[in-house]
Design a protein that fits this description.
The complex is a heterodimer of chains A (about 120) and B (about 210).
Chain A (H helix, E strand, L loop, with lengths): L2 H19 L3 H44 L3 H20 L1 H8 L1 H16 L1
Helix pairs in contact in A: 3-4
Chain B lengths: L2 H12 L3 H31 L2 H19 L4 H32 L6 H4 L14 H19 L3 H12 L4 H8 L3 H18 L16
Helix pairs in contact in B: 2-3, 2-4, 3-4, 4-8, 7-8, 7-9, 8-9
Classes of the chains: A mainly alpha (about 120), B mainly alpha (about 210).
Chain lengths: ~120, ~210
């Protein structure tokens, strides 16, 4: 940006700033009123949130109660034997080795089946 | 006082309550909007050529900022506010275009073009001689006309950088484009305006000593 541009920009800015300073009292009053109405949105939003707070709290409490009070038999059905078996597999060193060589064991299984057939 | 009560008491005094925080936020927003509102109004007014419409657009932008972005950091408010305002001005022009088409179709001419009188909406004189006031009013009128003739993106870049004083990064956020684009739009706008205002240069007007 050269000096000519800079001088031009300063003059334009000065003219604009003067037009801002020259805004009449009625317009400034409208702006002031508009600003305060906009700021009321802050209160409104807060109250809206606080209005929903009890309902949200009750819903969360009900959800927690359902989870906690769920019958133990249901839990066993869903996760019981399978979970125990999985844990045994995961904890046993032999089992882990076996898991690492699953293809080998499936080949043995397939070979045994073939020999039974043959 | 037992330990738990003491801890509660300390925590209550060391951290501001929700009400205090809300009050503080409201005060910050009020200060920010009060600082920005007059320039924003003039920028919107140049965009839509009508003060009442500009007032509505500025208020809408204020409401949207407060409603959606009050929790953002204060540094972000200016570009966000102008992004909302620019979108508002753009939507306003779209609505006007549709309205004008409908009016043309039903055979009635929109009176917006004829109703606007820059001299009538010129600001009241404040502490200047009538010659000075007239000089500035004419200069501003010339600038407004020239700015309106710029392509939309150039106009936005020019008004945000020049009139609002946003930096390149802030203008890029407000316009939703890259900083490189802002520089290009702004540079083209300045050169175009210089050419247009060459004979109507605001150089005749001298801002009053010590006014700003």
């Amino acid at each position: 940006m050269n000096e000519q541009d800079d001088g031009f920009e300063k003059k334009v800015k000065a003219v604009f700033d003067t037009s801002v300073d020259d805004l009449d009292a009625a317009t400034l009053s409208k702006l002031n009123r508009g600003r305060h109405e906009a700021l009321e949105e802050l209160e409104h939003a807060r109250h809206q949130w606080s209005r929903w707070m009890p309902a949200t709290g009750v819903a969360a409490a009900v959800l927690v109660a359902i989870v906690v009070l769920q019958s133990p038999s249901d839990v066993d059905d869903a996760f019981g034997p399978t979970t125990v078996t999985d844990i045994e597999i995961l904890l046993g060193e032999d089992s882990i080795e076996m898991l690492e060589d699953l293809e080998f064991y499936s080949w043995i299984d397939a070979a045994e089946m073939e020999s039974d057939v043959g | 006082m037992d330990v738990s009560t003491a801890v509660f008491a300390v925590s209550c005094t060391s951290t501001p309550t929700t009400g205090t925080r809300a009050l503080q936020k409201k005060r910050q927003l009020n200060q920010f909007l009060a600082e920005i509102e007059r320039r924003a109004l003039r920028i919107a007014e140049i965009g839509v050529r009508d003060r009442d419409e500009a007032l509505d657009l500025v208020q809408d932008a204020m409401i949207k900022l407060v409603r959606n972005y009050s929790e953002r950091s204060n540094d972000e408010w200016t570009p966000l506010f102008y992004r909302i305002l620019q979108n508002g001005v753009r939507d306003w022009h779209r609505r006007q275009a549709v309205r004008n088409r409908v009016m043309a179709w039903v055979g009635r001419k929109s009176s917006d073009e004829n109703d606007y009188d820059p001299v009538a909406t010129a600001p009241d004189p404040i502490g200047r001689t009538p010659d000075e006031e007239l000089s500035n009013s004419e200069a501003m009128q010339g600038i407004e006309i020239a700015v309106r003739e710029l392509p939309r993106r150039q106009r936005e870049a020019f008004m945000l950088r020049m009139f609002e004083g946003l930096n390149v990064a802030g203008t890029a956020i407000a316009m939703g484009c890259s900083e490189g684009s802002v520089k290009t739009h702004y540079s083209r706008a300045v050169h175009s305006l210089r050419d247009t205002l060459d004979e109507h240069r605001p150089g005749d007007y001298r801002p009053q000593e010590g006014k700003r």
